[in-house]
Amino acid sequence: MTPASALPLTRDIVLIGGGHAHALLLRAWGMQPLAGARLTVINPAPTAPYTGMLPGHIAGHYARDDLEIDLVRLASHAGARLILGRAEGIDRAAGRIHVAGRPPVAYDVASIDIGITSDMPEVPGFTDHAAAVKPLAGYAARWRDFLAGPPPAGAQVVVIGGGVAGCECAMAMAWRLRREHPGAGGVTVIEAAPAVLRDLGARARAAVLAAMQRLGVTVLTGAQVERIEAGAVVLADGRRLPAAFVLGAAGARPHGWLAATGLHLTDGHVTVDGFLRSITDPAIFAVGDCAHLQTGPRPKAGVYAVRQAPVLLHNLRAAVGAGRMMPYRAQADYLRLISTGGRSAVADKHGLSVAGDWLWRLKDGIDARFMARLRDLPPMPGPDAPELAATGAKEGAAAPLCGGCGAKVGAGALGAALARLHAVPRADLLAGPGDDAAILSLPGGGVQVLTTDSLRSVTDDPYLMGRIATVHALGDIWAMGAVPQAALVTVTLPRMSPSLAERTLAEVLEAVSEVLGAEGAAVAGGHTALGAEFALGLTITGLMPEGRAPLTKAGARPGDALILTRPIGTGTLLAAAMQRAAEGPDIAAALDAMATPQGAAAAVLAPVAHAMTDVTGFGLAGHLAEMLRASGVSAALDPGTVPVLAGALAAAAGGHASVLAPENRAAVAGLAELGDGPRAALLVDPQTSGGLLAAVPADRARALLDALHAAGFAHAARIGSVGDGPPRLQATGAVAQGRGPALASGATMG
To answer: CA-to-CA distance for 43 and 83, rounded, in angstroms?
Structure first.
């Protein structure tokens, strides 16, 4: 029998949005993936908020991270591609989803779970002077900033909208202000209708209103907002309410781009049948708050999205040929648990109501169990180890092979192999193996540099991987001070159908062309193949500006300052991610840094630098050691000044490291004194698309750093200095022994 992993990919299932139903689907898919189907999820951020805990966060009962569903970790568990971008349209005729800032994403079947928004742009001044309860990120950030310093004495909070969400948030804010800023003013809820909390039964409404009264929350009904100004909300009847913080919780509505899809909508929501399919297009499904059930519509509540997840999973499988459709049967009613500011709640179901602290504990337990399902992911079994194996084989397979530059051959083995190389001498080959790129003379006196590089995939997003691999390969060209000219691209795809191969290649080549084109270079050709996994390589040429010699690793001079253009830590973070021990936002930030070109940084450094290289597989210490050997000098490195990607230091402290790290440390053992601890570990961490490392005149270092920061390289730093030979690398400062402050963290590069 053919194993599932050997079957080719033939169908694309794309999840638009990271809502509750899609998050649960990712968890279930990882436990039982469908052979031949490629699963993709598109979401603007690496995490998605669990809105059921929002009032508790606003009241101060939960930290911000407690609400976050880590989509990076869930996608990894599911073996799904995660595309970080905002969907903004669907071309159903072409089967393409438009995503801001990247090429369209193809689908055979798609599902929409993007929730709703409570933004109120139709109210003059709202965008400038108010926050919307959804999306959560903006509200949470503004509330945090509001609380950061003591609000002005008597500062008022105004909530626009008297539904359950608005009243819950009003009570949460009133509770928080009473505890942390007792001098602040009260909270006022404005509702255009004659009454608030109209969706609740009479008893529950009365209980919630009593809780609001105890917290001093004022309710204004029949009040229409005319406009919002700095420090005030102006009503249609002319009243002007002082407001230091304004929250919009009224008029929740679907995202506007759905109207252009051609799908049948009900009040802006995608109308779906009993199988959760659009009644217009059976290739489109919709769940959660953005969907409207054609038969038996239900309120917009998370409980329905949660219960739609298993039906959606079953029907997406059926839509690509695996089984028959299953109908979704929504429950008639559900238990509403309304937080009342403190650790108490009101329950409402079938018109019956009860209140008390024990209901808060019930709600807290329900929320905790839901989040635990999405955080405590079951371990997936690896391939069975053979009973018999050659000596050392099982030990060598103990850790999974890293992607990116963490998968390259170690410096020792590479150096030994190159020492046996018998190259045919050529007058036009000015420099061959040993530096970042080969240097060739051209007829007429020009100089060309030539490099090649190949990476195992570090992300399942072909477009993002295309950008990373291209930026990584260009590092050698930039390090030589050359201008990129042309590239040959080698793409190896996992087994897939011709249609999926075409889609994937289009995404890869679009990314490669974008990065090269921005540098004035072009794709000149290449090669494709099908293999066991996705891999991407580029061979690139560059031309030296007239009158400028190529920069090499040689040339560093005593007294030079050492400048690094971007943070380190990619190998450690990727290794931790393989063990589900890294935070999704940290991985997303690392991938973003890897995909950011450094041509502008090279343009700043190359005219001034005495020597330059790019930091890749051998780590910062390894590549600096190569520069020291080539230049015949020593260096002092202060690890405390080395910029580090967010999360990398914690991952290193937790014992996570790339499989190449031990070889990197061994390769510099006779040259470098790095100390111990996580900071020292990161110095030998293999980098993918790492920063440029330059030896520059010390008196120019400050001006160069200012120029790099102005060019968007906010974390560029001076990390050490060059001294007299013989070649030696000394880590200095308290941090070299594992003491001192944490290294600076950086999320993105310019």
So the answer is: 6
Within a domain: 494: yes
First to last CA, the chain: 50
pLDDT band for position 252 (50/70/90)?
confident
For residue 400, give Cα distances in angstroms to 7, 308, 502, 656, 657: 22, 35, 30, 12, 11
Residue 564 has pLDDT above 60, yes or no: yes
Q: Do the domain assignments include residue 227? A: yes
Indicate whether 545 and 556 sit together in one domain.
no
pLDDT tens readout for residues 468-524 = 999 999 999 999 999 999 999 999 999 999 999 999 999 999 999 999 999 999 999
Q: What angle do CA 315, 42, 71 make, to 5 degrees?
A: 90
DSSP reduced 3-state for 439: strand
Alpha-carbon gap, residue 466 to 472, rounded angstroms: 10
Give the C-alpha separation, 581 to 647, whole Å. 10
**Strand pairing of 187-191 and 217-221?**
parallel
Instruction: Judge whether 529 and 601 are in contact, CB under 8 Å.
Output: no
> Based on the domain organization, do 575 and 720 belong to the same domain?
yes
Looking at the fold, whether 601 and 704 belong to one and the same domain comes out as yes
Do residues 147 and 72 share a domain? Answer: no
Domain count, the chain: 4
- Domain holding 32, by residue range, is 4-115+254-334
Q: Are residues 595 and 743 in the same domain?
A: yes
The string of DSSP codes covering 549-563 is PPP-STT--TTPEEE
CA 629 – CA 505 distance, rounded (Å): 41
Its sign, for the CA torsion 74, 80, 83, 88, is negative
Mean pLDDT of 568-592: 94
Residue 274 has pLDDT above 80, yes or no: yes
**pLDDT tier, 386 (very low <50, low <70, confident <90, very high otherwise):** low
Task: Examine the domain organization and report whether 606 and 737 are in the same domain.
Answer: yes
- Does the structure show a pLDDT above 70 at 378? yes
Provide CB contacts within 8 A for 239, sequence distance 6+. 223
* Listed residue (494, 706, 716, 540) closest to 615, CA to CA: 716
Is residue 405 part of the annotated active site? The answer reads yes
Quote the pLDDT of residue 563: 98
Measured over all CA atoms, what is the biggest interatomic distance in the chain, rounded to whole angstroms? Answer: 93
Q: What is the CATH number of the domain that holds 571?
A: 3.90.650.10
Say what the pTM is. Answer: 0.90
- Give per-residue burial for 670-698: e unless 16+ CB within 10 Å, then b: ebbebbebbbbbbbbbbbbbbbbbbbbee
3-state secondary structure string across 642-677: CCEECCHHHHHHCCCCCCCHHHHHHHCCCCEECCCC
Closest CA to 516 of 550, 536, 488: 488
The verdict on whether omega for the bond into residue 433 sits within 30 degrees of 0, i.e. cis, is no
User: From CA 152, how far away is CA 147, in angstroms rounded?
Assistant: 11
